[in-house]
Design brief:
Elements lengths: L4 H11 L3 E3 L17 E2 L8 E2 L10 H15 L3 E6 L14 H17 L8 E5 L9 H4 L15 H12 L10 H6 L6 H17 L7 H15 L11
Helix pairs in contact: 2-3, 5-7, 7-8
């Protein structure tokens, strides 16, 4: 988590002259269900499909939404569908479970059929993101559906330095800021953690009744974030 998977998808959107399809969760039923119009890649915000928003409480509605999503994408080629948190509907299938589990499995089967079924996708491409690739169904990962699996690792020291400077840029600072010293205390941090360091530094400045951030605020912040990360649980799995 926090390694920038969604940001990479936004970078893809800014470089390609194509449409991105999104699903608006929580909308009232329309002739197109909850499938909204694709947005131009020139938009600064990437429309996306959050997989958990596809799951509907009514039997068959989730599968219908998947069908309409792909039909709409085919009508607006070239198109890219970005599905975030795909593990919400792409988990391994099993024979037992509740009615909600069976509905999720029906949704997955419809997704598999649309990705590599009787009707070809032509110029419709899929990008999916997950923090739990070990839980995904093997049928979803096979060649022909998802041909490339890209593992986004934690940033190295130089990358952490660059990320920290980006997030610290808009902050009002006073005096010299030794970013290298801050980064040396940030081993194992991801991009979200480094952004949190800047937020915490601002909080320390507010508590000190300052309208600027100094080096000591950053040092306190990185130590605080490092202490909180020690309490996090870690999950090890084999890359897919």
């Amino acid at each position: 988590p926090g390694t920038g998977k969604t940001l990479l998808a936004r970078a893809v959107a800014s470089q390609l002259d194509c449409n991105f399809l999104k699903v608006c969760s929580g909308t009232a039923p329309t002739p197109m269900g909850s499938v909204c119009s694709p947005a131009s890649s020139s938009s600064s915000v990437l429309p996306k499909v959050v997989s958990s928003s596809i799951v509907d409480k009514y039997i068959g509605e989730s599968a219908r939404l998947i069908r309409e999503m792909f039909n709409y994408a085919r009508d607006h080629q070239p198109c890219i569908i970005f599905m975030d948190e795909i593990d919400a509907i792409g988990g391994r299938r099993f024979s037992e479970g509740t009615s909600a589990d069976r509905e999720i499995q029906r949704t997955l089967m419809e997704l598999l059929n649309q990705m590599d079924g009787f009707d070809t996708l032509h110029r419709v491409k899929m990008i999916m993101a997950t923090n739990r690739p070990d839980t995904l169904d093997p049928a979803l990962l096979r060649p022909g559906r998802l041909d490339r699996k890209i593992h986004i690792d934690l940033p190295n020291e130089q990358a952490r330095l660059d990320i920290l400077k980006i997030h610290a840029g808009p902050i009002t600072k006073h005096g010299e800021i030794d970013y290298e010293a801050i980064v040396k205390l940030s081993d194992g941090f991801n991009g979200a953690d480094l952004r949190n360091v800047c937020t915490e530094a601002g909080m320390f400045a507010i508590r000190a009744d300052h309208d600027f951030v100094v080096q000591e605020d950053f040092m306190k912040a990185v130590r605080k974030v490092a202490d909180s990360k020690k309490l996090e649980s870690k999950l090890d799995y084999k890359p897919v």
